[in-house]
Automatic annotation (TrEMBL):
Family per similarity comment: Belongs to the short-chain dehydrogenases/reductases (SDR) family.
GO molecular function, one term: oxidoreductase activity, acting on the CH-OH group of donors, NAD or NADP as acceptor
Organism: Billgrantia gudaonensis
Record protein name field: D-sorbitol dehydrogenase (Acceptor)
Pfam families, sorted: adh_short_C2
GO biological process: fatty acid biosynthetic process
Keywords: Oxidoreductase
InterPro entries recorded: NAD(P)-bd_dom_sf, SDR_fam
């Protein structure tokens, strides 16, 4: 029970990696807020967790649009009213798109930076303000990507957003540690989530591949021998949220089966 009685918000928490983190945080004793833009997905996630035996009194779902400052502020206020404060934030909400550099549209560029960078930063800022006011420290975990460690063809904008996440993690950590708020990140590699169906279809389009081939190839290329699974990120997220990582500050932990070595 490494997170006993702590209050955690997970953005993009209704599916994939976010939902896996929510599930494990509950097992570790935390109260969990599933914050997601998709209300129906939130309701489905809450129902699933309750069927699995999770204590409904330690669960909360709230619709969050990280591109809307009013939505962020309303979420922070509602969590404070329900649980009395925030101890942990997992900044997991993100969007993905890809295209050759010569075909990237301004709309695609703006949408990715709006969610992956601006939305992440201002969610972090709003939660950090609440943590400072409460004066009990806190943990903030930003989900980056191996794409933030290196450029990749067809994914120029997404790579740039995730590089920005790694940089923001460092800067925010150095600023907020004075308040006892420890900011770190996690950089997943290729992860087998429903979104990979969309990613695979885009690769099939731009690389002229059969559907499913790109997913198979990237999985085979991982030194561990397979793509990541959502549950592979729950343990690292517990570590960074718990007292086990007390002296870990401004780091982005690669969790990618050896796909990228810093």
């Amino acid at each position: 029970m490494k997170l006993l009685d702590r209050i955690a918000i997970v953005t993009g928490g209704a599916r994939g990696i976010g939902l896996a983190i929510c599930r494990t945080y509950l097992e570790e004793g935390a109260s969990v807020v599933i914050a997601d833009i998709d209300r129906s997905a939130i309701d489905e996630a809450l129902a699933t967790l309750e069927i699995e035996g999770c204590d409904a009194s330690r669960l909360m779902g709230t619709r969050l649009d990280v591109c809307d400052r009013r939505s962020i502020d309303a979420m922070v206020a509602s969590v404070g009213e329900r649980f009395g404060g925030i101890d942990i934030l997992v900044n997991n909400a993100a969007v993905f798109d890809m295209a050759p550099v010569l075909e990237v549209t301004e709309a695609s560029y703006d949408a990715q930076f709006a969610v992956n960078v601006k939305g992440l930063f201002f969610t972090l800022q709003a939660v950090a303000k609440a943590m400072v006011e409460r004066a009990q420290g806190g943990r903030i975990i930003n989900m980056a990507s191996q794409a933030g460690r290196r450029g990749e063809p067809l994914v120029s904008t997404y790579c740039a957003t995730k590089a920005a996440v790694i940089s923001l993690t460092q800067s925010c950590a150095l600023d907020l540690i004075q308040y006892g708020i420890r900011v770190n990140g996690i950089a997943p590699g290729v992860v087998d989530t429903p979104m990979w169906g969309e990613v695979d279809a885009l690769f099939a389009r731009y690389e002229k591949r059969p559907l499913g081939e790109k997913k198979r190839l990237v999985g085979e290329a991982v030194p561990y021998g397979r793509m990541g699974r959502p549950e592979d990120y729950a343990g690292p997220a517990v570590f960074l949220a718990s007292d086990d990582s007390e002296y870990v500050v401004a780091q982005t932990l690669n969790v990618d089966g050896g796909n990228w070595m810093s």
